[in-house]
Write a structure and sequence with these properties.
- By secondary structure, the chain is an alpha/beta fold.
- It is built from five helices and six strands, in the order E-E-E-E-H-H-E-H-H-E-H.
- Strand 2 (about 10-20) and strand 3 form a beta hairpin.
- It is globular and about 40 Å long.
Length: about 160
């Protein structure tokens, strides 16, 4: 069963969905693709959604730099490899799509890496906001570029 709940945070309302195995989806409700319950999802919190909300609130308050949550997002093996590489980008640092493609051992897959990054269903916890253009500028983010800038500023990460 997938549990789905909305949580208020200092960065806006979050939709969080989780199975018994772990987080399935997280998204800022103000972004380009707000999370809505899907067929078969149960409206209501679970231990995992509550834990995720608590850790995200601590992150937004500057009190947490890493997340300790079970992840269970569905994706292709390629997407999973990109999302795993995203988790390796340290708090307060950024990387380019090319560097991310290099990190997964597929340097020619820059565009595919960008698509997998954009398909990340676990916004913030799997830190796709830490990927910026090779020239240091902000590039697309489902939560909007203003939110991406807020998250990177919170972390003290460099960008132009």
């Amino acid at each position: 069963m997938i549990h789905y709940a909305l949580y208020s945070t200092s960065f806006g309302e979050l939709g969080i969905a989780a199975s018994d195995s772990g987080l399935v989806a997280i998204d800022l409700q103000s972004g380009a693709r707000p999370l809505a319950p899907r067929e078969g999802w149960h409206r209501g919190a679970s231990d995992v959604t509550d834990r995720a909300a608590d850790q995200l609130r601590a992150y937004f308050a500057g009190e947490r730099r890493q997340f300790d949550l079970p992840l269970a997002a569905a994706g292709t093996p390629f997407q999973q490899s990109v999302w795993q590489a995203l988790c390796a980008i340290p708090y307060g640092e950024t990387c380019s799509y090319r560097a991310l493609a290099d990190a997964i051992g597929n340097p020619k897959a820059v565009r595919a890496v960008a698509r997998a990054n954009g398909a990340n269903p676990l916004s913030i916890v799997v830190p796709c906001h830490r990927v910026i253009g090779a020239d240091g500028t902000l590039t697309g983010y489902a939560g909007g570029l203003d939110m991406k800038a807020r998250l990177l500023t919170l972390e003290g990460a460099p960008f132009t």
